Amino acid sequence: MDKNSKIYLAGHRGMVGSAILRQLSDAGYQNVVVRTHAELDLTDQAAVRRFLDSEKPDWVILAAAKVGGIHANNEYPAEFIYQNLMIEANVVHAAWLANCRKLLFLGSSCIYPKFAEQPMREEALLTGILESTNEPYAIAKIAGIKLCESYNRQYGVDYRSVMPTNLYGENDNFHLENSHVIPALIRKFHDAKLNNSPTVEVWGTGNAMREFLHVDDMAAACIHVMGLSEAEYKSCTEPMLSHLNVGTGMDVTIRELAETIGRVVGYQGEISWNTNKPDGTPRKLMDVSKLKSLGWQPKIGLEEGLSTTYQWFLAHQGQFKSH
Fold first, then answer.
1. Catalytic residues
2. For the segment 120-170, what is each residue's pLDDT rounded down to a tens digit?
3. Are 251 and 209 in contact (CB under 8 A)?
4. Which GO molecular function annotation, any one, does this entry have (predicted)?
């Protein structure tokens, strides 16, 4: 990837997109094109087509998506499937129409079956039923993978897909109900510390296992995958695959996670487990051997990453007070 390449980064204000933008800038990529949602609605097919036809980027990074935790996925399934399908279809098709031969699509580990063999290998895609709590979102992300795969097959373009495990870090959403588990717990433990609450309630049994990757590691992985030659990428994704897992290859129980967050925040009380609430998928651990064989490794440990994320939250907590 040439430093002068024109790169359109969709979703630059989101957690992953903002991390990618920072790292592209730090690496010397000066020709990065961005648009806010107010400037370009990615669910508007005609607007997306006009924009990409005008800009004609060398690369498109599709980091824009509607995302949320279990509660949000349960409450707004139509929004999750519709918006994500429209964003993917519009951007991928318009990129092809604009003669953009290089694209990176960001998916999610929820594409894999609920009871996939652990750790989950790329080959597990479409081999079983999905976790019901986020099925609409997962189906949309699977469609994104297949869009890239289909355009590669039919048109000979080089559209790549990366599937991150659970992400956290700077610019996350700390809404108590609509966020993912790490920001929700950071917010809960922080509020409990301020209020001297004797207990913090956490959903589920605490036995579910999850893998977590800091967003800066994810951004580095994206840039690494973009920098691979087409032959290198295909060496790990063909003939039957079209995507690569991105993760740490290590997981923890939600109980261990909650205890670590409590320690990082400095909360002294007890944790109570609401077993009437869902655990979600029993375990989600990624097999990341393919990406590691291509020269990438994560660098940020969980406790270190949680600590820097909490510090970011403290510096920006004013924007979350209304939630």
1. 137
2. 999 999 999 998 888 999 999 999 999 999 999 999 999 999 999 999 999
3. yes
4. GDP-L-fucose synthase activity
Known binding residue 25? Answer is no
C-alpha distances in Å from residue 286, one per residue of 68, 117, 123, 299: 20, 10, 12, 16
Are 257 and 223 in contact by the 8 Å Cβ rule? The answer is no
Domains of the chain with CATH codes: 7-320 (3.40.50.720)
pLDDT tens-digit readout, 60-98: 999 999 987 777 788 899 999 999 999 999 999 999 999
C-beta of residue 247 within 8 angstroms of C-beta of residue 109: yes
Judge whether 15 is annotated as a binding position. Answer: yes
SS (H, E, C) the chain: CCCCCCEEEECCCCHHHHHHHHHHHHCCCCCEECCCCCCCCCCCHHHHHHHHHHHCCCEEEECCCCCCCHHHHHHCHHHHHHHHHHHHHHHHHHHHHCCCCEEEEECCHHHCCCCCCCCECHHHCCCCCCCHHHHHHHHHHHHHHHHHHHHHHHHCCEEEEEEECEEECCCCCCCCCCCCHHHHHHHHHHHHHHCCCCEEEEECCCCCEECEEEHHHHHHHHHHHHHCCHHHHHHHHCCCCCEEEECCCCCEEHHHHHHHHHHHHCCCCEEEEECCCCCCCCEECECCHHHHHCCCCCCCCHHHHHHHHHHHHHHHHHHHCCC
User: Which pLDDT value is given to residue 263?
Assistant: 97
Is 188 known to sit in a ligand binding site? yes
174 φ, ψ to 5°? -105, 20
Q: Which residue has the higher pLDDT, 1 or 199?
A: 199
In the predicted structure, residue 18 carries a pLDDT above the cut 90: yes
